[in-house]
Design a protein that fits this description.
The chain is of the alpha/beta class. It has one domain (4-252): Aldolase class I (TIM Barrel). The chain contains 11 helices and 8 strands. It has an 8-stranded parallel barrel with strand order 1-2-3-4-5-6-7-8, surrounded by 4 helices. Helix 1 runs parallel beside helix 11 and helix 7 (141-152) crosses helix 8. The structure holds phosphoenolpyruvate.
């Protein structure tokens, strides 16, 4: 049985005070079901405070980063290392998000270096892949997704891939309100899992959680999670408000 993960990516939102209000707001709504994990990626400045909150209130929420630098340390003004994330108590790091690829020019090579560094630092990489609208429409999107996976995971020992989580996030669905239908998402997840099986073996493919991301909302989470190859969701907009995130958690409980 693969674990299910509902992950919220706060992007550049929430001060420390706002993060506290959010975590207080979801208390009492976090599913206690074994095998179901709730992950939140706050901005760097709120990481430590969020960790302190979840520890103090015994809140079943896993805290992680939204990005990190690929070097262990050095003269990289404004950057943050995996070790620095670990020290705050972070357990995972989102890597290869389409916003990092598009706005910060992160290539598959850079993302690969970050994934390796995250693994070395004992952070779980949450590796995002996804095609743009034109790539989906051309019908050639699987080549792109396979390339993102093959390059992003190049040179990593197969045994280490057990510590990885993948998020399939079609770029055309992020922040647009246009979710992939459960059928389209399932079909793509199945193909991604098939590629992983061919490349790294059935055992890794069978155990690797693959999350869906792109305009996930309270009213579509259940049908997405109902699909056999969808192991959870990476959520942006709807993870910012207590009301929508709690509604998502409540609907997840029913699946
Ligand atoms: C995201 O940015 O990873 C994301 C999925 O955003 P949204 O849920 O707002 O589409």
């Amino acid at each position: 049985m693969r674990k299910k993960i509902i992950a919220g990516n706060w992007k550049m939102h929430k001060t420390i005070a706002e993060a506290g209000v959010f975590l207080r707001g979801i208390q009492g709504h976090v599913p206690s079901r074994p095998g179901m994990e709730i992950w939140i990626a706050p901005p760097f400045t709120a990481l430590h405070a969020c960790m302190a909150f979840v520890k103090q209130h015994d809140l079943r929420v896993v805290i992680g980063g939204q990005t990190m630098h690929e070097a262990a340390q050095g003269a990289f003004t404004g950057e943050i290392s995996g070790m620095m994330l670990r020290e705050t108590g972070a357990s995972f790091c989102i890597l290869g998000h389409s916003e990092r690829r598009a706005l910060f020019h992160e290539t598959d090579g850079i993302i690969n270096a970050k994934v390796r560094r995250a693994l070395e630092t004992e952070l779980t990489p949450l590796l995002c892949i996804g095609e743009k609208e034109a790539e989906r429409e051309s019908g050639d999107y699987m080549n792109l997704l396979e390339l993102q996976l093959a390059s992003g995971l190049a040179g990593i020992e197969t045994a280490h891939l057990k510590r990885l989580v993948i998020a399939y996030e079609p770029v055309w669905a992020i922040g647009t309100g246009r979710t992939a239908t459960p059928e389209v998402a399932q079909e793509t997840h199945k193909k991604i899992r098939g590629f992983i099986a061919r490349r790294w073996g059935e055992s890794i493919a069978g155990s690797l959680p693959i999350l869906y991301g792109g305009s996930v909302k309270p009213d579509n989470i259940a049908e997405l999670l109902d699909q056999p190859d969808i192991d959870g969701a990476l959520i942006g907009g709807a993870a910012l408000e207590v009301r929508t995130f709690v509604a998502i958690l409540n609907n997840v409980e029913k699946v």
